[in-house]
Write a structure and sequence with these properties.
alpha/beta, Rossmann fold, 5-stranded mixed beta sheet, EC 1.1.1.441, SDR_fam, NAD, secreted, oxidoreductase activity
Length: 235
Amino acid sequence: VEFLYCDLASMKSIRQFVQQFRAKDCPLHVLVNNAGVMLVPERKTEDGFEEHFGLNYLGHFLLTNLLLDTLKQSGTHSHNARIITVSSATHYVGKLHLNDLQSRCSYSPHGAYAQSKLALVLFTYRLQHLLTANGSHVTANVVDPGVVNTELYKHVFWVVKVVKWMTAWLFFKTPEEGASTTIYAAVSPEMEGAGGCYLYNEERTKSADVAYDEELQRRLWTESCKMVGIFDEAS
């Protein structure tokens, strides 16, 4: 295991990380987009993005795009490179506000978090469409890890924290259990060549209906390219 620093809330840090990684001239067979914050108070990343959207979504969007060439070079017909993005069941209640992706009009921690997780599903489906169209040996899937007992809940109300403390052993997954579907997506032979899937408990399931809106996927992708400053090849 080798550690390379990357702050997903900083576009500069992401670009520096990619430069460091490329300098090693290593193949890249699996990319897991797993960083995230939840229900944080209204605040911005160093680039001025609302934190949920900037870190949970845009950070991974930029990182993935900057590593795509390496992933394409690493995948083969029999062993595709794999991109796994961790979303959440919260995406089912999320709404994508294309005219206000930064939640400037009215900020809600729950709404901003849900929007970022819906954006990750839309991104994954659009990415798989583009990979297929280019004939790339890379697959992209999105995972719902379930309700996992981690520090992600540190910004919830104290009442919820007490309930979590009392019931976590019964209703929450351990971090190891929460990681199982991500690991399944990353290494399972059953997922070889399979892309554009939403996975929960190591099974393919249906995501929110709005996530299958191809026009919404395309518009989000185009807007995301503008926000992070990369060329939209799909256009």
